[in-house]
Structure prediction request, 452 residues.
Amino acid sequence: MVCLYLLSFLLLGQRGSNHTAGRFLFNQQDSRTLSRQLRAKNIVCNPKISRPLPLPPKVLSNGTHDFDPTVIVLSFDGLRADYLSRGHTPNILSVGTSGVVAEYMQPSFPTLTFPNHYTMGTGLFPSSHGIVANMFYDPTLGEDFNYRIPDKSWDPKWWGGEPIWETAVLQNQRSGVIMWPGGESLRPVRPTYHVRYKSSTPVAEKMDTVLTWLDRPREERPTVMNVYISEVDTAGHNYGPDSRRCQKALVEVDNAVGILMDGLRQRGLDKVVNLLLVSDHGMSYVTPTQSIYYDDYIDPSELLLEESLQPHLAIRTKDPKRLDHIYKTLKSAQEKHNLQFKVYRSHEIPERYNYAHHPRIAPVVAIAEPGFVMTRRDMGIAVVGVHGWDHEAEEMRAIFMASGPSFPSHGPERLQPFENVELYEIIARTVGLQVEEGATDGVRNGYVSRPC
Ligand SMILES: *[C@@H]1O[C@H](CO)[C@@H](O)[C@H](O)[C@H]1NC(C)=O
Ligand SMILES: *[C@@H]1O[C@H](CO)[C@@H](O)[C@H](O)[C@H]1NC(C)=O
Prediction:
């Protein structure tokens, strides 16, 4: 039985872009090949593509205008997979109803916004693209990255791989990026259109911008659009995943999807343009009793860069000779008091995290159990909801659904869960962008399995 659903197709011919540059950044090809095989075995029902490949996407018309294959990707920060069953998101659900919907999309570790948006953009794990957390230290550069400081974080030296908005430009298509993390980095190839991050921008305005782009003449119109939407995450952090404010944010972003869908229908584009709805990670409550106060055991002033109140604590010591002591102290404290975290030397981090081999990953990493945070006595708890845990934790699950000419349209097609490193190739194939074999950490080549 054929267990793979073909979302798109393979294009033949010349490669339009140089995918070798910046790919295997840290010479980890061997370990990656191994884990690719393991994951392929675990996740894909039937890795053999046993049906003929469909034709490449073709130019479509809405009656008056020709449209090149086009895709709009909306990412809802912090939209946990089970939020969709709450009855607040009819527009979002309708995309899946008329196309495909995954039970959930699995984020990458750490389940934070910057690493995961750049993973969705590049098809690479954080350990491959280099944005290994929202804040981290690079021992080679001797500098730290901080997602809140644009002057620092947009320097191209931080951003590896090739995001889809660059792939589009390199292959003579056009891209438009609205606030998607990584889209502002000052890499040599820039998206054709770009809207800078501004937290006060209403989500409806972002939808208007997308529609304005669609109204441009064909030779100026972006074919790949990536839109970042923050409301649900903000409400989840401040009020918690079950709060009324979080429901309100769901209604707000769902209304915006309605605006976009109306705009597409008015232009006769609902069967012409592909729409992909995704999220980066979920959200979970934390309480003071779920805090692990690491300053009860170690002296925080010995640490190099602390991002406190996170599910994971990257540990580097100002004096490298103290690292071993700190590791052992935390490990024995954990064992003695049966604390809800694990501490690893970087080579001990379980392979399923795909979090290894990058110099930006700290030599010692403590990872709290889902629902618990690593924090200090003097920090208190400033938020209600948190994310960043184990990417396989149920509370961290993200969403994926899609509709449009590149997807089956005979009713809701339910897909097996898959990892977000697959997204790059799914996007690429909907618009006929070519991806070299092995250029991403995905294992499905743009195909996504459905239940066997
Ligand atoms: C691709 O990039 C690599 C590394 O920058 C370079 O050595 C190679 O010549 C390039 N290949 C093509 C086809 O441009
Ligand atoms: C087709 O799309 C173009 C560009 O958005 C729009 O100006 C035009 O009105 C649309 N045509 C129809 C028949 O809706």
